[in-house]
């Protein structure tokens, strides 16, 4: 199917579960520039990439009003290559990365703090109990704005269990927002992928990252 048909089907599903649809990020990391352009032509304006090379290629190829999200793990030594091209970083997952962003960025970078809500060994991110102190430690950082939290839930079929993970991230987001920290409004939630986005939306997701189901 073409991207326009896929997007229409996804939007219909979203409308059935919420009156406040999230921003759909087209995850184009496994597809060609032409396929990404097809997603743009279908009306999508948010694109997610997890490798620096692919990120820079797609950003150069697509029109300037496209918004680019870096959604992969970012090595500290690679920060200087990409950080000033990023509209949103979804993978702020350690202090050394924050320090390097503060050093290399020439403008404020909108960041999601990555949280490993399920405690999976294979996933990056802070444990939930570590997030508050990490964010509070960023209060004097001028180049980082914590716009929200991000998680990758386990790849399981049990949607009830998935919703408990997403609900936990929502509670944590609200606690950080309540701090009133100027550089950490933390109003957003980046959660939900091709297999679990409806559960994520039901628990308050504001950005969903869709690859397979949208662009293949």
Automatic annotation (TrEMBL):
<dbReference type="InterPro" id="IPR001608">
    <property type="entry name" value="Ala_racemase_N"/>
</dbReference>
<dbReference type="GO" id="GO:0030170">
    <property type="term" value="F:pyridoxal phosphate binding"/>
</dbReference>
<feature type="domain" description="Alanine racemase N-terminal">
    <location>
        <begin position="7"/>
        <end position="216"/>
    </location>
</feature>
<dbReference type="Pfam" id="PF01168">
    <property type="entry name" value="Ala_racemase_N"/>
</dbReference>
<comment type="function">
    <text>Pyridoxal 5'-phosphate (PLP)-binding protein, which is involved in PLP homeostasis.</text>
</comment>
<comment type="similarity">
    <text>Belongs to the pyridoxal phosphate-binding protein YggS/PROSC family.</text>
</comment>
<protein>
    <recommendedName>
        <fullName>Pyridoxal phosphate homeostasis protein</fullName>
    </recommendedName>
</protein>
<dbReference type="InterPro" id="IPR029066">
    <property type="entry name" value="PLP-binding_barrel"/>
</dbReference>
<dbReference type="InterPro" id="IPR011078">
    <property type="entry name" value="PyrdxlP_homeostasis"/>
</dbReference>
<keyword id="KW-0663">Pyridoxal phosphate</keyword>
<feature type="modified residue" description="N6-(pyridoxal phosphate)lysine">
    <location>
        <position position="29"/>
    </location>
</feature>
């Amino acid at each position: 199917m073409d991207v326009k048909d896929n997007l229409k089907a996804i939007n219909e599903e979203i409308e059935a579960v919420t009156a406040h649809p999230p921003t759909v990020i087209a995850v184009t990391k496994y597809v060609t520039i032409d396929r990404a352009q097809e997603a743009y032509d279908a009306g999508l304006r948010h694109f997610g990439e997890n490798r620096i090379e692919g990120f820079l290629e797609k950003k150069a190829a697509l029109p300037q009003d496209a918004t680019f999200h870096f959604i992969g793990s970012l090595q500290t030594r690679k920060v200087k290559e990409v950080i000033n091209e990023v509209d949103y970083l979804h993978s702020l997952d350690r202090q050394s990365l924050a320090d390097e962003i503060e050093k290399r960025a020439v403008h404020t970078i909108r960041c999601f703090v990555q949280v490993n809500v399920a405690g999976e060994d294979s996933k990056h991110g802070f444990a939930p109990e570590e997030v508050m102190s990490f964010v509070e430690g960023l209060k004097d950082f001028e180049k980082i704005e914590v716009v929200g939290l991000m998680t990758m839930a386990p790849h399981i079929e049990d949607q009830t269990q998935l919703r408990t993970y997403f609900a936990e991230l929502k509670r944590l987001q609200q606690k950080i927002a309540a701090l009133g920290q100027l550089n950490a409004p933390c109003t957003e939630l980046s959660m939900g992928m091709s297999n679990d986005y409806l559960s994520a939306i039901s628990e308050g997701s504001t950005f969903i990252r869709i690859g397979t189901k949208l662009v293949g």
